[in-house]
Write a structure and sequence with these properties.
Blueprint: E1 6-11, H1 17-29, E2 33-38, H2 48-55, H3 73-80, E3 83-89, H4 91-99, H5 105-112, E4 117-121, H6 125-128, H7 131-142, E5 146-147, E6 151-154, E7 160-164, H8 168-179
Parallel strand pairs: 1-2, 1-3, 3-4, 4-5
Antiparallel strand pairs: 6-7
């Protein structure tokens, strides 16, 4: 690989999860090492096999998987990462990050990493505009996490509103910028 930078893409449970496949494919083609973490519910939207095929790496959905050598997976991943990007980031994951809840592989890796963290929300517009969500976004920004705001677009509920995942080109460019 021409680029030895390690990118962790964390995929949470939203319809936009399918878009993270193209992001992973693009970053892998550019020579980055890409490891995918998935929340358990994200696997209802996209299968882990898709990401494994795109990265030629194991996809991690469980901190306690027997597929790893004995090593605290969340710590070794956190130390290896040059950046962690949550694409898409649900309101639930953002609330966990804002409040230090570490109950899955994604939240534990993010809490343990010293690498830049990029959060790309995508959800229904009512959720996106909820005061609790807005407060959680401000809180994670105070931690130094970068946020790529959602844009107006077609939502899973059938309407066009703010809550649509940002353009993948924008997300990819910011990942590469943060790696420099």
């Amino acid at each position: 690989m021409k680029n030895k930078k390690e990118i962790i893409i964390a995929v949470t449970a939203g319809i936009s999860a399918y878009k993270s496949c193209e992001l992973v494919r693009s970053l892998t083609k550019k020579g980055y090492g890409v490891t995918v973490l998935m929340s358990r519910d994200a696997t209802h939207f996209v299968g882990a096999l898709t990401f494994r095929t795109l990265t030629n790496r194991l996809v991690i959905t469980d901190m306690f998987s027997d597929e790893f050598e004995w090593d605290p997976a969340h710590i070794s991943l956190a130390q290896r990462a040059d950046i962690v990007a949550v694409v898409p980031a649900t309101a639930n994951m953002i609330a966990k990050l804002a409040n230090g809840i570490c109950d899955d592989i994604i939240s534990c890796v993010i809490m343990a990493t010293k690498a830049p963290v990029l959060v790309c929300p995508a959800m229904n517009d009512n959720m996106y505009n909820h005061p609790a969500f807005k407060a959680n976004i401000e809180k994670i920004k105070e931690f130094g996490y970068k946020v790529v705001p959602a844009i107006e677009g077609d939502l899973a509920c059938g309407k066009k509103a703010v809550g649509h995942l940002a353009d993948l080109g924008t997300i990819s460019s910011l990942i590469e910028k943060l790696l420099k």
